[in-house]
Design goal:
Length: about 425
């Protein structure tokens, strides 16, 4: 017995080592899968029609054809990119100085935007203003906006950033209405102010996420809205709320969880203006009642909030009607200025089925280009060597690089036109 016991005991540590090894292997496998480490890096997929403009852009915007390389350890995970953007916005964000402007709206609301002057001469030596619409419940004080504005200023752009109605914590509402998914009133008021105050300026229109929907809808609403507009850039929008709502209730890619977090944030913002929105106010929508306030408390999705509160600011009779009318889907084909639509293939908020919208548009219209990198998450697009991201993102650089290229394109066209007129006059 003693002999057999002595022979058996050395085998026990080997068994334990095997279990440890299997556990370590399992953990490593999960890490590799969760961090998507096996995913390759590649240049973004580009969908466009072959045209003189497209060829000029491919030559003038190296980022369109260059590999986008996210941080090595975590950058290939759309979830981590999205979470890092959501929690931090950006790293080591600058603090650009701007002036806050207040605009009285016809319904008694007060729109606000921040105006930032350029810090250097523009590459074409002319006056160009970026009019910027942030994402849902965002404003000019968000870190990703501050980082982008600072970079645009240093490249010679004046920047005007809309503060979504009700989003700034220290600005009270002056009417019983907040920003909504597709309301363009405040953005339009800001653009009109810029056009009137700076009659020589040309505009570059930029929208992030929900802001992308607003700016595209604004441009498509009227041909006059495209006057003096050089181009438009939309980043990480979903194009159709009606088609997105079903996917946003699915657990695939944790969209239902993101939906819950965004709804919780929206609830806090709405409840911070509870007195103006739900108090005794003769101006408030007749359909907004105490019952809606009760439903707001129990809402766990953006759709529930939109149905019980947001659609009623504009008198929509149903959620379907609200989403149908407020989405830019039906306005995109009316945009004639150069249009850059940027999404990330691993964006957990925007289902891949929604990307058929910009793809189809880009295949038909010469003014449209759809840019789809493999990685970037939702408004992440961080760059960096191994672990720590850089302050500037691939997205920041791409938007400015594209705007610079369009400015050069327009200047070249204008120069050619002037030359032709001079030759014609001599004849």
């Amino acid at each position: 017995l003693k002999m057999s016991a002595m022979l058996e005991t050395p085998q026990l540590p080997a068994v334990f080592d095997g279990v440890k090894l299997a556990a370590v292997a399992a953990i490593l496998y999960v890490i590799v899968r969760c961090l998507n480490l096996k995913s390759p890096t590649a240049p973004p997929e580009l969908i466009y029609q072959d045209s003189a403009l497209a060829r000029f852009l491919l030559k003038s915007c190296p980022l369109l054809t260059k590999e986008y390389i996210p941080p090595l350890i975590w950058g290939k995970s759309g979830h981590i990119q999205t979470a890092l953007y959501g929690k931090m916005g950006r790293v080591r964000s600058p603090h650009p100085y701007g002036l806050r402007k207040y605009l009285a709206m016809p319904d008694g609301a007060t729109a606000t935007f921040d105006l930032f002057e350029p810090q250097s001469e523009h590459c074409i030596g002319e006056d160009v203003t970026m009019v910027i619409c942030p994402g849902i419940a965002n404003h000019s004080e968000k870190q990703y906006i501050r980082t982008f504005v600072d970079y645009a200023q240093k490249n010679g752009y004046r920047c005007a950033v809309l503060n979504h109605l009700g989003a700034l914590p220290n600005i009270e509402l002056t009417s019983p209405r907040m920003f909504t998914y597709g309301c363009t009133w405040e953005f339009s008021a800001m653009v009109n102010y810029i056009k009137k105050t700076y009659p020589q300026t040309q505009l570059v229109v930029v929208g992030f996420s929900l802001g992308g929907n607003i700016v595209c809808k604004y441009l498509g609403e009227s041909q006059a809205n495209q006057e003096r507009v050089l181009c438009c850039v939309s980043v990480c929008q979903g194009y159709s709320a009606l088609r997105a709502q079903e996917t946003f209730m699915q657990w695939d890619q944790c969209r239902r969880f993101y939906n819950f977090l965004m709804a919780d944030n929206m609830k806090k913002i709405i409840l911070s203006h509870r007195q103006v929105l739900f108090g005794d106010n003769m101006k408030k929508p007749q359909s907004l009642s105490d019952a809606d306030l009760s439903k707001l408390y129990t809402a766990t999705s953006l759709m529930q909030i939109d149905d019980n509160v947001m659609r009623k600011f504009h008198g929509y009779s149903s959620l379907k009607e609200y989403y149908e009318e407020e989405s830019c889907l039906h306005y995109l084909h009316r945009i004639y200025v150069p249009l850059l639509l940027v999404n990330a293939a691993d964006d957990p908020l925007v289902h891949e089925s929604l990307l058929s919208i910009p793809r189809a548009l880009s295949e038909k219209r010469e003014n449209v280009m759809h840019v789809l990198p493999l990685h970037g998450g939702h408004l992440g697009f961080f760059e960096g060597s191994v672990l720590l991201p850089e302050p500037l993102t691939w997205m920041d650089k791409l938007v400015v690089q594209y705007a610079n290229a369009i400015c050069q394109w327009e200047k070249t066209k204008s120069h050619c036109s002037d030359t032709e007129q001079a030759v014609s006059g001599q004849e």
